[in-house]
């Protein structure tokens, strides 16, 4: 039987694997039919889970899980998702909540809940200069939109790096 402390320990191990960008280890923590649900869209099966973690690898994403509330086989927690764009514009990531449902000691569902409106506004404001620049200088990359895979994450990283280099001092820190 999995205890409450075991579920939190599993999530901390998942956080560690994700932040080391150990795609295989992170994906292995899910059930065979496991899912990540982000922005209301489910990414299910091992290939989709691998692609999602490869996006995080390519975009240099780091996550933080904290403030755990365990109820049976479900853990709700504070979730911070910070990619290269967040760091480039001086943000500490997107703060929201996540719900993890476990089955036989593995993650069955990782549901990333939408951030609060104030959090969305904070990101829109901070990222506006980057988005305007990217639309003017990399319209083909912007037109591709978002897909949860390595190439999309790598594209974001490349455009962010180019934006950083275009900024005074080449640091990318928007002042």
- Structural class of the secondary elements? alpha+beta
Oligomer: single chain
Shape: globular
CATH topology: Nuclear Transport Factor 2, Chain: A
For the record, what CATH class applies? Alpha Beta
Sequence stretches where pLDDT stays below 50 over 5 or more residues:
none
What does this molecule look like?
- With 175 residues, this protein is an alpha+beta fold.
- The chain has one domain: Nuclear Transport Factor 2, Chain: A, CATH 3.10.450.
- It is 48% helix and 28% strand.
- It has helices spanning 4-19, 23-28, 46-58, 84-88, 117-137, 139-144, 150-166; strands spanning 30-38, 41-44, 62-71, 74-82, 94-103, 106-112.
- It has a six-stranded mixed sheet with strand order 2-1-6-5-4-3, with helices on both faces.
- A hairpin with a 2-residue loop joins β3 (62-71) and β4.
- α3 runs parallel beside α7 (150-166).
- The relative contact order is 0.15.
Task: Name the features.
single chain, 48% helix, Nuclear Transport Factor 2, Chain: A, alpha+beta, 6 strands, 7 helices, 175 residues
Question: How would you briefly describe this protein structure?
Answer:
It contains seven helices and six strands; from the N terminus they run H-H-E-E-H-E-E-H-E-E-H-H-H. The chain has helices spanning 4-19, 23-28, 46-58, 84-88, 117-137, 139-144, 150-166, and strands spanning 30-38, 41-44, 62-71, 74-82, 94-103, 106-112.
Q: What topology does this entry show?
A:
Layout: H1 4-19, H2 23-28, E1 30-38, E2 41-44, H3 46-58, E3 62-71, E4 74-82, H4 84-88, E5 94-103, E6 106-112, H5 117-137, H6 139-144, H7 150-166
Parallel strand pairs: 1-6
Antiparallel strand pairs: 1-2, 3-4, 4-5, 5-6
């Amino acid at each position: 039987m999995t205890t409450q402390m075991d579920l939190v320990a599993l999530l901390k191990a998942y956080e560690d694997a994700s932040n080391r960008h150990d795609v295989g280890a992170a994906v292995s923590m899910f059930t065979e039919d496991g899912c990540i649900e982000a922005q209301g869209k489910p990414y299910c099966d091992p290939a989709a889970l691998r692609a999602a973690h490869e996006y995080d690898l390519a975009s240099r994403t780091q996550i933080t899980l904290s403030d755990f509330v365990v109820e049976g086989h479900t853990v709700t927690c504070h979730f911070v998702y910070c990619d290269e764009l967040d760091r480039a514009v001086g943000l500490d990531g997107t703060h929201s909540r996540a719900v993890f449902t476990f089955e036989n000691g593995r993650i069955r569902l990782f549901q990333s809940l939408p951030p609060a409106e104030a959090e969305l506004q904070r990101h829109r404001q901070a990222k506006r200069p980057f988005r305007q620049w990217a639309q003017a200088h990399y319209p083909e990359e912007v037109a591709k939109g978002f897909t949860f895979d390595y190439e999309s994450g790598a594209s974001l990283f490349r455009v962010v790096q180019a934006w950083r280099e275009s900024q005074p001092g080449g640091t990318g820190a928007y002042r």
